[in-house]
C-alpha cells in the first residue's frame, strides 16, 4: 500500500496528535537495570510477538538466549523460536533479536474450571494456527463443539476446536485458579506500560504546578519494593523547587507512632484523589483499589460472593483477600490530567451465551466479496498507526483476482487537488455500513467507530459527558479523545456478507 499524504492534509491517526515529549532522564540502560521483568532471563520460556505486516496479533513460543546488557543502551533480546525454523527440513530453529516489549511469559496451563467454561460469541481468544497463537474474536458457536473465529488482521474466519483456543492475555485476570502464573502475567503488563511511558512528563509537570498548592489533598505513590501499586492519602505542605513537594500523610506516622509522617515526593508520584462512585456492584474481572494497611492497593476481582463481598487478588504480592463494598473503589489511572478507566468489567460473566444447536455451514475462510464498480466502500490499512481505521472510498476497477483500484472520498493526492486513488487488496475493502440514527445515548464500554481526520477509528466509550459528548479510548494508541454524539456510530464487523454488531453486550 502506498504512503498517504499525512502532513500537508492533516491526515494522521489519533496517536500522531500527541505532542512530542521531551527526552526522559532515565536512559534505556537505567530502565533495563531497574525494570527488567523477573521472568526475563537466559533459557526462560516466552511468547514472542511481531509488528511485521501479516503477523500482527500473533504470538509464537520461544526461548530467551541473551538479555540486554546493563552497559549498553539497548532493549533488545536474542530469542530462539520453538515452532519456527530457519531451514526447510525443520532442524535449525529460527533465531532473532527482538525488543523486550515484544516478549511475555507463556500463559499458565488452563485450570479445570477454565477447560469447562463456555466460550461465547464476542469473546476474544487466541487460536493456535500455523505454529503460533493468533488474536481473534469468536463469531459463531457450532453444533459439533467447534467455533468460528474471525481474525481482523487478515479478514479471515476459520473453524477451531475448543482445545485449540485460549483466553487472550487480559482475560486471564478473570481466572483465579493459577495465582502464580497470573501474578507473573500482570507484572509483565505493568512493566510494559512503564517502558512505553504513556505519561507525558512535561504535561504532568504543568498540571502539578496548577493543581497542587499548599493544603491540597492528594494521593502519593511509591516505587519502593513492596509498595508498588499503592496510593496513600496526604496533604501538600509546600512546593520544593520546580518538580518536588513536601507532603504530610493522613494515615502514616513517624517511628514514634504519634507524629504524622512527612516526606518529599516529585510530580510523577502525586495525583488528586479520584472521583468517588457510589453504589457500584463489583464483578469478576474488575480492576479495583482496596483500602488496606492505611493505603489504596491495586488488585483484581477474582470471585463474587453474597452481600457485596468479593475476593481480590493483589498484583504485586499474589495475595488473595476478601473485601466489602466499603473498602473498594473502581481503579482509575491519572494520565496527563485525565482519569482513565479500565477497558473491561466482568468480561467472562457478561459474555452473551449462544445456543450450540445452530445449523451453521463451516467455512475455512471468509469468501472474497464481489462489489459492483462504483460501489461506495470503506478501506482499511495495515500501515503502522492506521490499524483499526476505515476510510470512505469508491470502487473504480478490479485488477486481477486479489487487487482493486479505489478512490477515496476525502483524501487528496500529493498535489492537494485530485482525490487520492490507490491499489489495495480486495480483503481491505467492505461496503459502507447502512446509516442508523442512534436515538438513545451511547453507554460506557460501548464499542464505537469515531469520525476523526476523514476516517472511522475503532474505540470504546470510557466516559459519558454532558451535552451529548463522550471520552473514547483507542486501544492501539492508548489515546483518550473527546467526541460528540454525531461523530460516533455503533461498531460493526463485515463478516460473510453481513454486518455483525460488536457492542459491549457481546464483546465485553
UniProtKB/TrEMBL annotation:
Region spans: Disordered: 1-36
Q: Which SMART domains match?
A: Agenet
Q: Which domain of life is it from?
A: Eukaryota
Residue span(s) of domain Agenet: 38-111, 117-173, 210-278, 280-336, 369-437, 440-496
Q: Which PANTHER family match?
A: AGENET DOMAIN-CONTAINING PROTEIN-RELATED
Q: What is this protein called?
A: Agenet domain-containing protein
Write down the species: Arabis nemorensis
Q: What is the lineage of its organism?
A: Eukaryota, Viridiplantae, Streptophyta, Embryophyta, Tracheophyta
